[in-house]
Amino acid sequence: MRKISLSFNRKDFEYDVYSLIRAFEPGCEIVTWYEEEQEPEQMDETWDRCRVHYEPDGISFSIRWRNEPVREAQVPVEYEKDRVHTKNVLKQLVYRTLSEVTGKQLPWGDLTGIRPTKIPMKLLEEGWKNTEIAEYMRNTYFTSPQKTALAITIANRERAILEPVNYENGYSLYVGIPFCPSICLYCSFGSHVLGRWSHMVEPYLEALFRELRFISEQMKDYTLDTVYIGGGTPTTLTPDQMRRLLTVLSEEFPLEQVQEFTVEAGRPDTITREILEVLREFPVSRISINPQTMNQETLDIIGRRHTVEETVEKFHMARELGFDNINMDLIVGLPGEDKEKVAHTLKEIEALSPDSLTVHSLALKRGTRLNLMKDQYEEISFENSAEIMDMTQDCARRMGMGPYYMYRQKNIAGNFENVGYSREGKAGIYNILIMEEKQSILAAGAGASTKFVFQNGERIERVENVKDLKNYVERIDEMIERKRKGIRMYLRNGK
Q1: pTM for the full model?
Q2: Are residues 418 and 304 in the same domain?
Q3: What is the mean pLDDT of the chain?
Q4: Residue 324 forms part of a structural domain
């Protein structure tokens, strides 16, 4: 494993530089330290060295790579005058240097944030033309022509989809159901295995209902645009429990007026005819049935305790019951999945013909079992490439879908992205609102994060619920009080 020392003479923009190095050298070990401190003891001459040095009138970046002579580059910049400009100049400097020593170019250039479409979206709102935005992104961030075009295409479609939504004067609601039949190898969500936590479902729902009723009362004078029930896997609830949840929502919120109501059905092994029939009793307009892959060997490796046949069966069952807006999630870069296996998955998905398709690039997050137990999977390859991403895009196009939202994650395979594709009129509005940070989202449940949006996304304030189930239930009054303070602050300053 490559080991890299990253030092600074002052604490500024560390994460941006760290992320760029990580993008060029995924899987490496990076130790960040500051020159006011002593060099970490574990470092020796075998380590590669990167150094950022800030001066009043410029920044220098030096690198010793693979025992080659030290390279150093400098750029003039008025450090304190414009921090956004300073950060861009620094990232450009680091990117150019790393590109020279590695011989690599990254598809997203020096962009390290998770929302690349926010840049063209903001510029479109300011009246820029597509060609002007493309030139700016390539010159400022070194994005490839393909990724530049993708970001601008999505930004334009997002604007069109959101045009009828008065998102500045409304809000969205997220409801978290943190239970799953098993925890997938790659999962980083705060989910609880139902077999071990079934005794907590009823107390959890009672606490959740209290929180939902509070939100309803506080936001009664504002428009509810979208509702999203996620998890976990919401369909781990029994039909009766799901009916009670949806009844509370229908009694407390004007569901008949919302632009979109999504339930993340997710795992095919949790979907039954009874649970789907319950969803049909209420104005649920969109569901997800997520195979992740259509290769049984991979499903077994990652801990998805369902079969490919179950995915097909449950999809057809949902269609039979009248669901006309079904999303399917795929993950590329899963262990052992080469382009042939991805091609097989895409062929099977195309035969089902969902209304939208979300393609995720595997991200090895710190808390996942796959990352914590990676030594056990040394013999398994993790493959993603531009060719594989192009295959997913081509599949979506053959199904009559275009890209409508996108985001990136830390440690994402191949430095790529997650893209949502949909047919006309079937895009997930909630997905756009949360990713572009265009609207406040009130979130209920264990681990739920409420996001208050100010000044069209220029400022974000969050109110977090505790993740632990027992703590959430026992401290529900505290969770409600946190929201009370957050809502009061938001309505006073944001409206």
Answers
A1: 0.90
A2: yes
A3: 90
A4: yes
